[in-house]
Amino acid sequence: MQNTYSAKDRKYLKALGARVRELRKAAGYSQEDFALEVGLDRTYMGGVERGERNVAVLNLRKIAAGLGVEVGDLFVQPAKTSK
Question: What is the model's pTM?
Fold first, then answer.
């Protein structure tokens, strides 16, 4: 079943995913190796990085810990766009 998110929600999910991908690559992990490291499925991580997943808080904690950052460091404010 496909979840439907508002445009604003999708923007935030995509920003989170892009930040996770940026930090993962900077840490030198492949998506598969990182998923194994933090105990999450590779396809789940792919969905997170593409902004397709509404990530559970405990999974955010796992991701942040695997990247050596605080959970808050995963969040960036998406750029404002005109309506």
Answer: 0.86
